[in-house]
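Q: Hi! First time doing this. I have a protein sequence and I read that you can turn it into a structure. Is that right? Here it is:
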Amino acid sequence: MKYLSTRKQMLRWVVVGCALLPVVAVGAGVEFPQEAGGYKKSDLPGYQIANGLCLMCHSSQYVSSQPPKSSPKYWNATIHKMKDVFKAPLQDDMIPAVVEYLSVEYGGQDRAAAHADYEKAMAALKSPATADTSKK
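A: Yes, that's right. Below is the predicted 3D structure, encoded as structure tokens:
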């Protein structure tokens, strides 16, 4: 390799320095903070889906910053926006579970009522023709 330009040499040192910085910091006893927050733990299936897919694009603070006592209708619309507009990798049959989780943990909805909504949504997914005729 012949002589590199000064600019390329400087860039190389910056890259090497950035790569070594965490190693040096840990060696010096610097402790890095844990993630400031996470989704509220729950045994509801939507918790696992939210942890796995929602955190890919945004932090849990996004959910915490939504209006308190948000309704299932609000959460459903928000999740559909994430899927349809922002291309979140959610399958249609995952959405009712996430709505149930968010409605209970962040919307304050009664767990039994949220589960009833979940069951209705899943039934509608299984037989869309029946759901369409019941709306008329």
